[in-house]
Design brief:
The complex is a heterodimer. Chain A has a single domain, classed as Formate dehydrogenase/DMSO reductase domain (Formate dehydrogenase/DMSO reductase fold), CATH 1.20.1630. Chain A is 70% helix and 0% strand. Chain A has 16 helices and no strands. The radius of gyration of chain A is 23 Å and the shape is globular. The two termini of chain A are 33 Å apart. By secondary structure, chain B is of the alpha+beta class. Chain B folds into two domains: 62 residues; 207 residues, Alpha-Beta Plaits, CATH 3.30.70. Chain B contains ten helices and 13 strands. Chain B has a five-stranded mixed β-sheet with strand order 12-11-10-3-13. Chain B has a two-stranded antiparallel ribbon with strand order 1-2. Chain B starts with a helix and ends with a helix. The chains are: A mainly alpha, B alpha+beta. The site of one iron/sulfur cluster (SF4) has 14 residues of chain B, from helix 4.
């Protein structure tokens, strides 16, 4: 494949990353593996001793795991926004970040469902989902929706990768034979002929259109796991759109963070420019406002009407002795902070936007926890139980270890994948993109 | 025609039942012509049995070991339910004094550990000024059961006789049904259940719910295995005050063991209600309001062990203030 000068430059910069597995990478990999190992031990305990080792009990039947599940599926929306929506809108500045976004999507969609598996008491019977499927159960909807979404995301990521694989294949990289072979297979004979180009273009457009409704379906059915029950705080009609919006919102946040990390780590300032942070910041701000609106509307109606059961949950969320501080954090860091940081021109800087995004993502995780646990702690009948662990949920170390192992797996996958493909897509840069990237000199030093 | 079929069906079931019993008896003794001493000194009655090698033999019923918790129907039958029945329960709140005999009987019959109750007695207080009352609560076997709707594998199901049962050999333990049941009815086996080994080895049936299995859900099952034998559920039998009336809505009769009354008359006369009717779950358990109560509510509190007292302290101590 012929590279133009611009593509060459981008490629040369990223070449060492895929050629060598450096010391630092080894260090991180081992670190992640250690965490995953701890999680593996926790999982072993959970399987051997039963779910007793978790903090879940008959009232709070779901805990950290489900929060993590929603969280990871949520951040997987990074790809849906960037590749899907921005692709269709033909937003040019998206090109350097599509790979990161798509990778987040695929990896998070792998890790999310692992967390729901951790919730299941009989993993040995998982095949029952296919042997005796019942279509009216929201869990079946989830299996179908997430399965399709994952497949779609993988195809989408791959479509954008074919051209790059062909570049790696032809670039005479200093890499082992198997890796050469891998590139050759993955490039499926792409030579850049007009017909090949056209096919990829059509498929990508098609996938971009498909991925958006898919993404909406996934988080809607996910929210309906809660919305379909008769529980206070869950049985809400806005849960579908509320969850979808929150998901895109957190996805954008994670994308900003990933961009910042990569820009720093691989000194990609000239490709991941301030403009990217600011534009994504704007998107984050708008989504934050929408998410804030949903939050306000949801809790205002519950609080105002003050039905007995809703009131109980609201009381838990507003009471500083219970979940009050967490609820405050979830709303300040999750709504107000990101909006302000982007809205005020003075703070609209990559580092600050990234910081706000970081807190926002954290706050959204807390929010998921606050959606699940307080409701389950407020059953309609009085608990009248003297076993404290049945009354109040406390996550055990097993659950935390597995949560951290999930995060470590996310990073591990990311690290490994970035050793196979360039984080900045090369083939996407035609001559015409040259203009959109500022020269290195006039860039504000941020890293 | 229908009658005949029913009779045929019944005799076939009876035959299968005794056959199963015999299998147990023979596996225990080694052969059919065993030397077990007759258990009960009843008048000997010959019964036809199926031997382990498939032959039909006649045996003196006195030689049979009666085995409780036998899975006497096939899995399919256990899913369909008892034809023609529509089980219903009426709980008379005016008679309950939290004697907890029902809880004990249920725990014993189902080999439940002490603190994992299928049937619980709550202390309810509907409004701030309202009088507290004891409220026994088991599964309501809802006619529009939210738990059944959400099960992804049909492990929890609704039968034609009204019962909602769980097949713990199919349940994947997703706990969705627990989140969906608005009445906190279901319990989960968070660890390997502690049950006697001979019980553990029994053949499982959704009708008996025995043996319990780790990682699966369970709950009150209205004891259909006992209904098949013409017996009442243990909670109904055990209650000293006749709180529970159990019966068949189709026959329009319910009984608490002492008296048998018309179901429709009872719920009309006593203004029965269903708990949280507004949820639309259509429970099959009716409550008779706690009016003209036979016992003061304290009677169920004073003699409780400390641990149980703790459950209700927040209401009882508040009241005496
Ligand atoms: S009381 Fe709960 S477990 Fe029983 S049938 Fe109704 S919803 Fe299901
Ligand atoms: S826990 Fe078992 S019975 Fe309940 S919904 Fe899941 S599979 Fe069905």
């Amino acid at each position: 494949m012929e590279l133009n000068t611009y593509q060459k430059e981008i490629f040369e910069r990223q070449r060492p990353v895929i050629e060598k597995f450096g010391k630092r990478t080894w260090g991180w990999t081992i670190f992640y593996l250690l965490w995953i190992g701890v999680g593996g031990y926790a999982l072993y305990l959970q399987i051997a001793k039963g779910h007793k080792v978790t903090g879940m009990r008959d009232n709070v039947v779901w805990g950290l795991y489900i929060a993590n599940f929603i969280f990871f599926i949520g951040i997987s929306y990074a790809g849906a926004v960037i590749s899907g929506i921005l692709h269709l809108l033909k937003v040019e500045w998206r090109k350097p970040i599509i790979r990161i976004a798509e990778m987040i999507t695929v990896i998070a969609t792998i890790i999310g469902p692992i967390f729901i598996l951790l919730c299941i008491g009989r993993l040995d019977r998982l095949h029952h989902l296919f042997l005796y499927p019942r279509l009216q159960s929201p869990i079946t909807w989830d299996v179908l929706a997430i399965g399709t979404y994952f497949t779609g995301s993988v195809i989408f990521l791959y479509l954008a990768l074919i051209k790059d694989f062909a570049i790696y294949r032809d670039a005479k990289l200093n890499i082992p034979k198997w890796k050469q072979k891998f590139y050759k297979i993955m490039a499926i004979g792409y030579r850049g002929t007009p017909s090949q180009k056209r096919h990829i273009k059509i498929s990508t457009n098609l996938m971009a259109i498909i991925i958006i409704p898919l993404a909406i379906i996934v988080h809607s059915v996910l929210s309906w796991i809660f919305g379909m029950t008769l529980r206070p705080g869950w049985h809400s009609t806005i849960f579908g759109p509320y969850f979808v919006l929150a998901a895109i919102y957190s996805g954008t946040g994670v994308l900003i963070i990933a961009m910042w990390v990569y820009r720093r780590m691989y000194k990609l300032n000239s490709y991941l420019t301030d403009k990217h942070f600011i534009y994504l910041g704007y998107i984050m701000m708008v989504l934050g406002a929408g998410y804030g609106y949903f939050t306000f509307s949801e809790y205002l109606t519950d609080w105002f009407a003050s039905e007995k059961w809703d009131n109980e949950v609201i009381e838990k969320l507003f009471n500083p002795a219970k979940y009050g501080w967490w609820f405050l954090f979830a709303n300040v860091a999750g709504i107000i902070l990101p909006i302000l940081v982007v809205a005020i021109p003075k703070t609209r800087r990559p580092n600050l936007i990234t910081l706000a995004a970081f807190f926002m993502v954290l706050a959204l995780w807390v929010k998921r926890y606050l959606i699940i646990v307080p409701t389950l702690e407020s059953p309609l009948l009085p608990m009248q139980d003297t076993r404290m662990e049945y009354v109040k949920y406390h996550a055990t170390w097993v659950e935390w270890a597995l949560t951290l192992a999930g995060v470590a797996t996310f990073f591990l996958f990311f690290t490994l994948m970035s050793k196979f493909v360039t984080i900045i897509p090369i083939s996407e840069f035609g001559e015409k993109e040259k203009a959109m990237i500022p020269a290195k000199e006039n860039e504000i030093a941020t890293a | 025609m229908k009658k005949e079929e029913e009779i045929n069906d019944k005799s076939r079931r009876d035959f299968l039942k005794t056959a199963a019993l015999a299998t147990i008896a023979t596996t225990a003794c080694g052969s059919l012509a065993c030397s077990c001493s007759p258990k009960k000194a009843e008048v000997a009655k010959k019964v036809k049995l199926l031997s382990p090698d498939g032959e039909i033999v006649e045996i003196d019923s006195a030689y049979l070991n009666y085995q409780e918790h036998m899975a006497i129907v096939s899995k399919l039958e256990a899913r369909q339910g008892i034809a023609g029945k529509k089980f219903v329960m009426v709980v008379d709140l005016s008679r309950c004094k939290n004697a907890r005999k029902c809880v004990a009987a249920c725990q014993k019959w189902h080999y439940r550990p002490e603190d994992k109750e299928w049937l619980t007695v709550k202390l309810m207080k509907d409004s701030e000024e309202g009088a507290p009352y004891w409220f026994p609560k088991q599964c309501f076997h809802c006619d529009n059961p939210p738990c059944v709707k959400v099960c992804p594998v049909d492990a929890t199901f609704k039968r034609q006789d009204g019962l909602v049962l769980i097949d713990n050999e199919r349940c994947i333990g997703c706990k969705f049904c627990m989140a969906a049941c608005p009445y906190s009815t279901r319990v989960f086996n968070w660890e390997e259940p502690d049950i006697p080994i001979d019980i553990k080895n029994l053949q499982y049936s959704p009708e008996t719910g025995i043996p319990a299995r780790v990682g699966t859900v369970e709950k009150c099952d209205f004891c259909p295995d006992r209904s098949r034998e013409g017996k009442l559920p243990p909670c109904v039998e055990a209650c000293p005050n006749g709180v529970f009336y159990f019966g068949d809505e189709n026959e329009d009769t319910v009984t608490n063991g002492d008296e048998t009354v018309s179901f429709s008359q009872l719920i009309k006369d006593r203004a029965a209600y269903r708990f949280m009717e507004e949820l639309g779950t259509k429970p099959r358990v009716y409550y008779l309001p706690p009016k003209d109560r036979q016992f003061p509510v304290e009677r169920g509190y004073e003699d409780l062990p400390e641990k149980l007292k703790d459950r209700f302290k927040y209401i009882m101590e508040d009241k005496t203030k």
